[in-house]
Amino acid sequence: NFMLTQPHSVSESPGKTVTISCTRSSGSIASNYVQWYQQRPGSSPTTVIYEDNQRPSGVPDRFSGSIDSSSNSASLTISGLKTEDEADYYCQSYDSSNQVFGGGTKLTVL
Amino acid sequence: QVQLQESGPGLVKPSQTLSLTCTVSGGSISSGGYYWSWIRQHPGKGLEWIGYIYYSGSTYYNPSLKSRVTISVDTSKNQFSLKLSSVTAADTAVYYCARNSKLTVSYDYWGQGTLVTVSS
Question: Which residues pair with A78 in a beta bridge?
Fold first, then answer.
């Protein structure tokens, strides 16, 4: 089994850009797609990125995803931050036998 | 629009079996192309995949919970269910049912979640 490690929290000002990392402990980050979910307090998660860098319809293009094989990590980048982006963000990936979520990152927009 | 709704007891005694059902509306479980999933979130913590089932009945479980978990499907009622045996306080969590798309490999629809407390 592998783990996905995220920073516990990040903060940035409105209008700025923030990047949240997600590092895979074993196995290649490129071998299985990475998804990113946004969870606001009291709500269920929603997908903001799927298949490493694809945005579902309705998700603004301020959200982008990427992977970096050299660091074995995925990243979620949010540009032009808005106060409504304040939420918890989870990365998720899988292998042949398991689905794994990262521990989550609390984004504060202040 | 697909909707998922969890139902079941909000309080379970230690050592007993937790049982939840997810009712799917706006789409058929039997249509294929999706894994029907259970995911939980301990209070103030992150998401933990419990397992999922395909409409055919094939199941996949989190190795850490596999010995205690059973997921089943009732296509006639468009429902799928979770049973978690021998629960302890550590199983207190919000339990979500969700749909995992084989096409996008993402969880594209979620229920609202239901809090299950394990306590005597």
Answer: A18, A63
Contacts of A86 (CB under 8 A, 6+ apart): A40, A107, A108, A109
Question: In this structure, are residues A95 and B38 in contact, taking their beta carbons and an 8 Å threshold?
Answer: no
What pLDDT is attached to residue A1?
85
Task: Flag the least confident range among A96-105, B9-18, B85-94.
Answer: A96-105
Residue B99's identity, in one-letter code, is R
pLDDT at residue number B31: 87
Q: What is the mean pLDDT of residues A80-92?
A: 97
Using a CB-CB cut-off of 8 Å, the residues of chain A touching B112 are 44
pLDDT range class, residue A97, cuts 50, 70, 90: confident
Which CA distances in Å does B52 have to A17, A84, B24, B56, B70? 36, 32, 14, 12, 10
Q: How far is B74 from chain A (nearest CA, A)?
A: 23
Counted across chains A and B, CB pairs separated by less than 8 A come out at 57
How far, in Å, CA of A91 to CA of A104, rounded? Answer: 7
CB of A50 within 8 Å of any CB in chain B? Answer: yes
Say which of B63, B96, B112 has its CB closest to residue A98: B63
Res A22: pLDDT: 98
Find the CB nearest A99 among B49, B112, B113. Answer: B49
